[in-house]
Write the structure tokens for this entry.
Amino acid sequence: MVVAVYSCACLFLGFLLLSADEIPETEGVEDWRRFDLPPDAYFKSRQTTMLPTVPTTTLGSYKKPPPFIQVDANEVAKEKEVFNPSYNGSIPSSIQDTFFPTTVKPTVVTKGPKPKVESLCTLDRMYVRIEKTVVNDTDAWKSLYFGSCPVNQARRGYYYFLYRLHHCGLRPQLTDDAIVFTQLLRYAPNTTDVVIRTRPFAVPVSCSFSRFHRTYKIGFHPIVGDIFFKNLQSLASASVTAVDENWLPLSLGGYYELEDAMYFEVRVPIVDNQRIFVNRCHMTAAVDPNSIPRFIVIDNFGCMLDSMSSSLSRYHISPDRAILRFTIGAFLFPNMDLEQGLFIHCDLTYEEDATPSAKACTYNHETLGWEELYGNHTVCFCCRSTCNSTQGTAAIASKMTSSESWKIGTTPKALQHVDSGLMVPV
């Protein structure tokens, strides 16, 4: 005969509920002073009092019994006798472990970095704030939106959004465990430039209200991702490769962050005492070098044109004359699909030394002049006008040399771990 022994623990939580009518709804900008607390203090007070604390015992953590255990009826009868007032025997070890759990040393949890974006839900409102340091622009609030809603308030190093749960396009979604309200926090600066150098982003921010308190967890089953294939380039041909800051090939799935530098390395199998040069380089969003749009970064027989616009764009000295290294400030084309990759296409030549028709010149913003990579700056004078081709310059390939594609990350690292608020009554 088998019986089931059930155990349960009950916890009473009391919350002071405020009617939504006690806080009048306003159209447009919400007034934070209605809460008698500045936004920072309100977030701090809510984060420190969201959940009740559970007192701990000096004997260790409290016992966490399973929902039920199947045991033999004879064993139950034996243990039942222990609780008889007339019982004078010893207490079985199984019962001793229940009443006197072993002391467990508490685990010290190291707090991670403070999130740049925080959210909090009440019964009828959602609060979101983002640090101003995420977007280094004094007018960033004009381009920040939570769904369809603009910034409410800007103070104390934060931008704030305070709206009711039926505003901003918020819609409740029911999951197995919670009711979730999710909306995108977007920064979409307006620009009419050829390329974009500020950082647009869109990150989901959510608040959830837990539907159940579970006493167990379901096992995690990993999901195998997609399989990627990469063609191997021949070592006997010229190549333009996207690399990382250590000049190593960009790893599979690697990408560059907007507002950072993109690194490139040109390698060619040339004869001794020859130096590699780039006549012209441009970037496209398609593998076809003739596709539109395109952005010219190097032209005029080696003049780094983009170095006049971005201090990140410049040539770098390499350990081998047959290797040319340079960086370009990361950018996106307007209306570009974020899943698209970028390509760079270069026209390569080689010479024994730098000449006006074969050079590596970068614009110096301090001296307001052009400088050659290895010091012969006079060959860069024509970068201010038009450099003429001379006899003797040898082309490495009959057509442009193109790179493999890479992508630009649009989510700042500071926002890659966004704190999701817990929806609680207030």
In short: Residues 1-37, 45-60, 231-235, 422-426 have pLDDT under 50 and may be disordered. The CA atoms of residues 243 and 249 lie 4 Å apart. The radius of gyration is 32 Å. The first helix runs from residue 39 to 48.
